[in-house]
Amino acid sequence: MALLEVTNLVARYGRITALSDVSLTVDEGEVVTLIGANGAGKTTTLRTISGLMRPASGTIRFDGRDITRVAPNEIVRAGIGHSPEGRRVFPRMTVRENLELGAYTRRAKDEIAADIERVLTIFPRLRERYAQKAGTMSGGEQQMLAIGRALMSRPRLLLLDEPSLGLSPKLVQTIFEVIRDISARGTTILLIEQNARQALAVASRGYVLEVGRIAHQGAAADLTASEVVRAAYLGGGA
Amino acid sequence: MTLFVQQLINGLSLGGIYALIALGYTMVYGIIELINFAHGDVYTLGTFFSLAILTLLGVTGIVSGPMLIVVVAVAILGAMLLCGLTGVIIERLAYRRLRNAPKLAPLITAIGMSFILENLMQYWKGPSPIPFPQVIPNPSFAVGAVTVEAKQIMVILLAVVLMMVLQTFVRYSRLGKAMRATAQDKDAAQLMGIDINTTIALTFLIGSALAGAAGFVSGVYYGSTWFFNGFAAGLKAFTAAVLGGIGNIAGAMLGGFLIGLIEAMTTQFIGDQWSNVVVFSVLVLVLIFRPSGLLGESLPNKV
Ligand SMILES: Nc1ncnc2c1ncn2[C@@H]1O[C@H](COP(=O)(O)OP(=O)(O)OP(=O)(O)O)[C@@H](O)[C@H]1O
Ligand SMILES: [Mg+2]
C-alpha cells in the first residue's frame, strides 16, 4: 500500500480548472518528483494534498486514511510536512520562532530542542541567523528555513515546492544534498522542481504534469532518457 | 505649569481608556486586516453590561472595604466575559464567512454590526444618557496645586497592567505565537498545524474583553454613558491604533495615551472645539512621515 495515494484529483479556482485529472502514488521511503511547465498545476496539487485547497472531486489517501476534506492543521498532525512555494516563512519572527512554530503540533520540549539542533546542523547558516527576523534574510536563507521548519513536525511525508528556485548554483547543490540526506534518514519526499534534471537525479520515480493532468510517469531514469521529456523539460541535448 | 501637569494627568487617564479600546482594533486588524467598526460599540456594551451587573448586585453608590474589591472584580470580569463572547459571536456570524471576500464586504458588514449594536443598546436603555453609579470612593490627592483623583490612577494602572499581560501572552505563550503566525501568513500558519479559526476567535475574545474592561472604567470615570458613546470613542481609539502602528500592541497603547494627552492639552490651551481637529491633524502628519505609524514595522508581510 502506498503511503500517499492521489486518485483522479480535480481542482478549480472559481471557473478556472487547475487540475483536471491527477493520480499519483508515493511509497514509503521514496523520493518522487512532479515536474511540469509553469502553470501546469504542480503547486495546486501540493496545496490540495495538504488541505489548503478543497478539491472539486477525487480522493487523497495518506497511510490508508482518507484525508480528502480534512483541515490542513489536522493533515500536519497526520504526518505531512509542506515547504510551500515562495517559502512563506513568518517574516516578523526570528529563525528560532519559525522553527518552534514548525513543531507546533508537538509537545515534548527536549525532543523539539534536539530537532532544532539537527536542523541547525543541516543548515549552519541558520545557526548564524538564529535570532534574526526571517523577513530580513536572503532568499536562500529563507528557503533553508522553510525546509527546516517543515522538518520540525517530524513528517513521514515531506512536500517540497521548488526548493531550489532563485538560488545560486552552489546553494542549489546544497539543497539537493540536503534532500538526499533527509531521504536517507527515512523521510518520504514528494518534490516539485523546475530543475527537472536534478530532480530526476535524486528521485526514484517521476510524474510529468501538463495543463492539469499527468502526461507521463515512470522510473526517473526512464523519464530522463525519454525523448518527449528531454525535449520539453530537460532543454534538449546533454 | 500647574495647568500643564494637571492636563498631563487628565490626558493620561483619558488616554488609558482609548488605549484599552485601541488594543482590540489593532489586534483584529493585525490578524484579519479588518477595521472592526463595531468595536467601539462593544466598548459601550461593556459599560451597559457593567451597569447591569452592578444593578444585579444591588450596588447604587459607593462601596467600601473588602466588598469594593469583590464588586469591582465581578463587574470588570463580568463585562470582559460578556463583551468577549459578544466579539466571538460577531466574528462567527458576520465576519468569518466573508474572510475570503473582497475587503469592502467585511468592512460594510462591520459598519452594519455597529448600527445593530447601537440600536440594540438604544432599545435596551433608551436614547438618553444613563447615570452610572460611583462605585469607587474617589479621594483626590493634592500634589501642590495639581489634583490627582484615585479613579485616574485606577484607569492608568489598569491600562498599563492589561497591556503588559497581553504583550507577554502574545510574545511567549503557545497561543500567542499562533496568533502572530496567523497574522503574518494564514496558509503557512495552517501548515504548522494551527487552527486559524480558533486563533481568530481568540483574538476577538481578547480584544473585545479589553473593550469590556474599558467600558467599566469609562462608566466609573464619567459617571454616565449612552448608546452612542462608542462612536466617538471608537473613532479616537482607532486613530490611536493607526498612530501607534496598526497591528502593534505597544503602538496601540502609546497611541492611546498620546491621543488622550493631545485632547486634554488642546481642550485646555486652545479650546474644546479644536480637539478633534488637532487629533486628526497629528494623525495625518505622523502618517506622512511614518506611514506605518510610530511603532509600526515596515517589513514585508508577504514574500
Ligand atoms: N489563486 C489562483 N486563482 C486563480 N487561478 C490560479 C490561482 N493559483 C493558480 N491558478 C491557476 O491554476 C493553474 C495551476 O497553477 P499552479 O500554481 O498550480 O501551477 P504550477 O505548476 O505550480 O506553476 P509554477 O511552476 O509557475 O509554480 C495555473 O493556470 C494558474 O494560473
Ligand atoms: Mg508552483
Write the layout of secondary structure elements.
The complex is a heterodimer of chains A (238) and B (303).
Chain A: E1 4-13, E2 16-26, E3 31-36, H1 42-49, E4 57-62, E5 65-66, H2 72-78, E6 80-83, H3 95-102, H4 109-122, H5 124-128, H6 139-151, E7 157-161, H7 169-184, E8 188-192, H8 196-202, E9 205-210, E10 213-219, H9 220-225, H10 227-233
Parallel strand pairs in A: 3-8, 3-9, 6-7, 7-8
Antiparallel strand pairs in A: 1-2, 1-4, 4-5, 9-10
Helix pairs in contact in A: 3-6
Chain B: H1 2-32, H2 39-57, H3 66-95, H4 104-125, E1 130-131, E2 140-143, E3 146-149, H5 150-172, H6 174-184, H7 186-191, H8 196-222, E4 224-225, H9 229-244, H10 249-269, H11 275-289
Antiparallel strand pairs in B: 1-4, 2-3
The complex binds adenosine-5'-triphosphate and magnesium ion.
Count the strands of chain A?
10
Please give the CATH class of the domain at 1-79 and 158-163 and 189-238 in chain A: Alpha Beta
Biggest interface and residues each = A-B, 32 and 22 residues
Unreliable segments of 5+ consecutive residues of chain B: none
- Average pLDDT metric of chain B: 94
Give the CATH class of chain B. Mainly Alpha
Helical content of chain A stands at 25-40%
Name the assembly state.
heterodimer
Approximately how much helix is present in the residues of chain B?
A: over 70%
Order of helices and strands of chain A: EEEHEEHEHHHHEHEHEEHH
CATH level-3 fold name of chain B: ABC transporter involved in vitamin B12 uptake, BtuC
Q: Largest sheet of chain A, described in full?
A: 6 strands, mixed
Give the CATH topology of the domain at 1-79 and 158-163 and 189-238 in chain A: Rossmann fold
Strand order of the largest sheet of chain A: 6-7-8-3-9-10
Hetero groups bound?
adenosine-5'-triphosphate, magnesium ion
Return the structural class of chain B.
Answer: mainly alpha
Cα-atom Rg of chain B, whole angstroms? 19 Å
Low-confidence stretches of chain A: none
Order of strands across the main sheet of chain B: 1-4
> Do you know the CATH architecture of the domain at 1-79 and 158-163 and 189-238 in chain A?
3-Layer(aba) Sandwich
